[in-house]
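Q: Hi! First time doing this. I have a protein sequence and I read that you can turn it into a structure. Is that right? Here it is:
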Amino acid sequence: MNTTKQAVQLPILEPSRHNYDRLRVCRKCGRFTILMDESCPNCGKMKLVPVMRQARSQTIRRMLNELLITFILTIAALLLSPDMRLMALFAAVGIVLLVALVLVQRRAVERETARELSRLFRRQQRDIYDGLVEDQRIGVEEVRAGNEVEGYHILRKTAVLVQNDRLRLALLSLLQNFRLRSDMDLELDSLITRGFDPLVAEYIGEMARIKRDMIKERSIRYVIEHEPKILQMEQGWNILVGVTSAMVRMKRYITTYPGFIRRYARHLPRERFVRLYRIVQSDSGLLQDALAHDLEAIRHELYPNDPELTPHGAIQS
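A: Yes, that's right. Below is the predicted 3D structure, encoded as structure tokens:
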């Protein structure tokens, strides 16, 4: 593990309603990117627009074409009319059709924009992927140039749309170089790989230490699934104890994974053991589990006279 970690301030990844909200496309060359530069990273033109705006523009253009076709047909009908009576009839029908079409289009523009966006993603899936891969290359170049924080931020933004273990491990490798703090904008679940990797286990252990509320179902299941491999790591035991300590904050995790918690309960810090003991004591179902018997034995051995380890002690947060 890196022992010379940098003290840095990681940029905040602003939340967005949709994953694609950061994705932009160049109207000149068609390059897709999540980079926040003013100009296109491919052609240099100031033609970058959000993909939603591009989809809306295409929708409005299509609707205008529909109106134009209706207008042209109306004019053609007028020109071909044999008498004034039919000309007036065609004119009235054409005006009604144009007005009705405008009203229908106004009501349907949002729905049609969403459909156009879906078609854009299907039609240009490869172009989007290639653009994001190019963004990743730029992020890697930033890292190699010594701008690790900027490179990490670029890679993190691409990871919202391109999700694979290679990118996850690259992000975890960068995070190992930073001195992480609880006030940082960090994530965990999105960085967990499909298979086991020591980088993932170490990061889970770090989150359990500095930001235990990030230890949730996905990371817990990962740790339990790969427990034997984690135990073989140099800091594996500390990782497992740390995750157990974080799990104690929620009763749901205790009732769901009592067997795992049993294996590390003895090694919990006192305040976490007190919380675990009190939660188990307050639940009639848990009192019938082997976990309750283990906790009672630990209490007698390690904390025989502790006033907080009684059925009426307060549960600490």
